[in-house]
Write a structure and sequence with these properties.
CATH class of one domain: Mainly Alpha
Distance between the termini: 116 Å
Number of strands: 0
Helix content: 40-55%
Order of helices and strands: HHHHHHH
Length: 192
């Protein structure tokens, strides 16, 4: 028996073909927030997560922070200021305040710029004079470098280009300052 081709009507009473449940809704999105605190160990973050997330690879070096009571006298007072400056530098580093990290390095560098420290190196620690002179030159160079970020003019009075510290500048100055404060603090503590 031939089929009746004149009746093309659907037996389906629903015109919402894509809904699946005869309703006019095709797609319904429900958001269910899910909060979970997760602690990632710093070693895992540095070695596993940072490279995978495209942040980069890092070398982690642990430098001890000098936290002992400083000796009496001017050197001890400057050492106290340097240790406080290191704390502030660490906070500014964590906050991403690169210029302020470099600015806060001044007390650390100034700790070294006094003759009593130079005499201490030569006399109490029995460093040879040429070693004291070379260390002194390198410390002066660090002082001159950090000064460029704070002074808009040269020593001769010429206007210089304004320098804005970058993350790399801040980490360099912080690392050197931490190493210097640790060196001086431990040497002073041993000699006292």
């Amino acid at each position: 028996m031939p089929r009746d081709v004149t009746n093309w009507s659907s037996n389906r009473a629903c015109d919402w073909v894509l809904s699946g449940d005869t309703s006019p809704v095709f797609l319904n999105v429900d958001c269910h927030p899910y909060d979970q605190n997760l602690t990632i160990a710093s070693s895992d973050w540095v070695h596993d997560f940072a490279p995978t997330l495209g942040i980069g690879r890092f070398l982690v070096a642990e430098l001890p922070v000098f936290e002992k009571s400083p000796p009496a006298g001017q050197l001890g007072q400057r050492l106290t200021k340097a240790v406080e400056a290191m704390r502030e530098m660490r906070e500014k580093l964590q906050d991403g305040e690169w210029d302020e990290v470099v600015e806060k390095a001044r007390p650390v560098v100034e700790l070294l710029k006094h003759n009593d420290f130079r005499d201490f190196l030569a006399e109490k620690l029995v460093y040879p004079q040429d070693a004291v002179d070379e260390l002194w030159k390198s410390l002066d160079a660090l002082f001159q470098f950090t000064s460029k970020f704070h002074h808009p003019t040269t020593k001769q009075g010429a206007v210089r280009q304004t320098l804005t510290a970058t993350k790399e500048d801040a980490y360099l100055v912080y690392s050197l300052s931490l190493g210097l404060a640790n060196l001086i603090g431990r040497k002073v503590a041993k000699a006292s």
